[in-house]
Amino acid sequence: MSENSVADKNIKDLKSRLKSAINARTELENEYSAQSALLTGFIGKLSQACKGTDILLDNKLAKLRTTLKTATSFTELENDIKVISTLLRQHSLKNDKSRIEIHEQLNSSGTGLQKLKSFPKESRRQLQTLITKAEESHASLIQYIPLMSEFIAFYESIIVGQIRLTPEQPKSAHTSKHVTIDKINAVESEITTENNNAEQEKAPKELLGRFNSILNTLIISKKHNANINKIKLSLHGQISNQNLMTECLNVFDFMIEDLEQERSRAKVFLSTLSDTLTSVQVSVTATIATSTESNEQHAKINQELTETIKEVSIGINDAGSLYEIKVDVNDKIQHIAKTLQTKAELEDSQNIALNEQLKSMSAKVEKLEQQSKVFEKRIQEVQAKSFQDALTKLANRASFDEFFAKELVRFHHKQFDLAIAVIDLDDFKRINDTFGHTAGDKSLQVIAETLTKVMGIDVFICRYGGEEFVLIFKNVDKITVMNRLNMLRKKVASLPFTFKGTRVNITLSIGVTLVQREDIVHSAFERADTALYRAKNEGKNKVVYG
Fold it and tell me: Which of 18, 212, 333, 473 has the fewest beta carbons closer than 10 A?
């Protein structure tokens, strides 16, 4: 029965490991599902921004939005995404062609107007300025809008002037002017149409910033890093909604590929685990069956021995002489010895079979443990990434939520000095807007490195979001934490940031508070956050206690 207990214990342990692996896999899929939902919502909003660009594209995007809400797998989206990607590429080529045409049309219109001799001197100077501007080539349709607006305003002034002059002109001249006005109206109509299309071109900065933030927090395999960095670089200049949609779909493809790869790995592991468990279960069942059969055989032998011994007793009582007793006892003893030998041989064979089964089970369990360790390591790596900010390599908000909640539990169990500081970079949006998101990203990386060096390993540091960081101090009083934060503030203010040859100073506004007995997670954070806004309102580059 001890072998059965060992087997039951092994099965119980394996079931526990399987449950842990399944739970970890569920957490991993939930993480990917959350990221997919975020990107799905973003694609839906981005597709709305492209509405009105092209009827066919509008219909396909509307269908994609509907599919995104109801799809249960990415396979359902694959055909729609391929069709939309083709349409976007076609539309991009069409926009390039339209850009060239409008450039040529503006030059042609300006040159044509120059040939008219009835313009006032001031109008001719204004026209020459417009023609000079029209000769400059632009990268997208949206950049032609200001110039087209100037042309339209100029055409309007010319039309008004021509209408005023019409009653005083001869009939032939009058006809000539009307032809000119018709041409002007035709050009104006065409430009207005191009204007409407161009307005759909440029993606808003807020949308680009949000997409960049999503990319910074995205957990994705290393093989896609180069492509993600390339997409990030494309966000720093002017980019059309169509191109942004294409890049968004590319990111979706990367996520789908990673998710499918993770699912494949998990499927292989779980399949192997299931096969191994089945094999172990078969071995255990065989062992139990063998043990049952062995018990029956032993019971049969014991019964035979008991009956033989009884026969000896009966033979002694019934014997007529000593010789008869001797002969009968001798026969019975030989029979007992033979039975005992059979029992010994049976036990030996059973022990050998049991040892072989146990060795086989041990080998299978060891193989299963090795596979479990590999998969557990993979899960731990993914979990570590899910608690790390992709850009700065600091802890992220999810890591902060878990860490601070645990520290509060410890604090309420046995109180100690626990401080939380909220840090925000002053006027950081100016760096992104002026020097681009690459400069902003590099600045955040330098700030994160400085935080780590100055604060040391005894302080929990996380990037809470955007340009905001959160620090948690343990076993430090108010004076100490204020001094350390002021030292950090001065260190950051002295960092030599240079972008495109321009020296830029970055400063920090910091709000800090000590956790109180009645505090919960939100109340302590909000008090530090309120202190941060006081620092902002009092001139920035300050540490304020709340």
Answer: 333
The mean of the pLDDT values for the chain is 75
What is the C-alpha separation between 358 and 355, in angstroms, rounded?
Answer: 5
- Residue 350's H or E segment, with its range, is helix 322-386
The string of pLDDT tens digits covering residues 166-197 is 554 444 444 444 444 455 455 445 544 544 45
In eight-state DSSP terms, residue 16 is H
Mean pLDDT of all residues in 352-373: 74
End-to-end CA distance of the chain: 67
Q: In the β-sheet with 460-465, what is the strand arrangement from edge to edge? A: 460-465, 468-474, 418-425, 508-514, 543-545
Query: What is the band of 29 on the pLDDT scale with cuts at 50, 70, 90?
Result: low
∠ CA 18-23-26, rounded to 5°: 125
- Phi first, then psi: give them for residue 347, nearest 5 degrees: -65, -40
202 phi-psi bin (left φ>0, alpha ψ -120 to 50, beta other): beta
* Contact partners, residue 506, CB within 8 Å, separation at least 6: 425, 426, 428, 431, 443, 447, 492, 493, 495, 497
CB neighbours of residue 121 within 10 Å: 7
DSSP-assigned beta bridge partners for residue 544: 511
Contact yes or no for 195/148 (Cβ under 8 A) = yes
272-317 tens-digit pLDDT: 666 666 766 666 676 667 667 777 777 777 777 777 777 766 766 6
Q: Is the dihedral of CA 512, 387, 40, 88 positive or negative?
A: positive
Predicted local distance difference test score (pLDDT) of residue 176: 41
Distance CA 226, CA 222 (A): 8
Closest CA to 11 of 376, 294, 287: 287
Q: Which residues pair with 512 in a beta bridge?
A: 421, 545
DSSP state of 143: G
pTM: 0.44
